[in-house]
């Protein structure tokens, strides 16, 4: 499950990086995020490339790079929290494109944090029924 979640994060951040670097005019129609400063958007796109590379490194061996999972946990936590703050401030319009991803980002952040803590996902999926049948 962790590897799948990391792959999803890699895909999402890759798309955002490419849009911010090369297709800024699509950010508004696709994500309902106003493009106020193209230079800043380009800089942010470069930062997304760095984060995308971190996802790629983690994807190779999530257990080995467990400490890096905290970085992508922050990436997804900020992706959930910051749009909500900007919507509350009135800087971003509250649409399904801006509100919809928030629970998804929070879920990915939770999965990454769980993996960073080193808790095996088998313990979550077997639950109490798995303990009762093994005893």
Summed up, what is this model?
With 135 residues, this protein is an all-alpha fold. The chain contains 7 helices and no strands.
Structure description:
- With 135 residues, the chain is mainly α.
- It has one domain.
- 78% of the residues lie in helices and 0% in strands.
- The chain has seven helices and no strands.
- The mean pLDDT is 88.
Q: Regarding quaternary structure, how should these chains be classified? A: single chain
Given as residue ranges, the uncertain stretches (5+ residues, pLDDT < 50) are: none
Average pLDDT confidence is 88
- Rg measurement, Å: 17 Å
> What fraction, in percent, of the residue positions are helical?
over 70%
Terminal Cα span:
26 Å
Keywords summarizing the entry:
78% helix; single chain; mainly alpha
List the topology elements.
Elements: H1 2-22, H2 27-31, H3 38-60, H4 69-89, H5 96-99, H6 101-117, H7 121-134
Helix pairs in contact: 1-3, 1-6, 3-4, 4-6
């Amino acid at each position: 499950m962790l590897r799948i979640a990391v792959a999803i994060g890699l895909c999402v951040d890759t798309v955002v990086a490419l849009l911010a670097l090369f297709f800024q005019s699509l950010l508004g129609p696709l994500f309902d995020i106003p493009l106020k400063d193209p230079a800043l958007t380009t800089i942010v796109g470069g930062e997304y490339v760095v984060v995308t590379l971190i996802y790629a490194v983690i994807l190779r061996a999530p257990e080995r790079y467990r400490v890096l999972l905290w970085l992508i946990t922050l990436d997804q936590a900020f992706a959930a929290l910051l749009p909500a703050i900007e919507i509350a401030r009135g800087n971003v319009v509250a649409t399904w494109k801006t509100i919809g991803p928030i629970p998804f980002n929070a879920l990915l952040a939770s999965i990454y944090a769980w993996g960073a803590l080193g808790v095996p996902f088998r313990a979550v999926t077997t639950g109490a029924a798995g303990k009762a049948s093994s005893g």
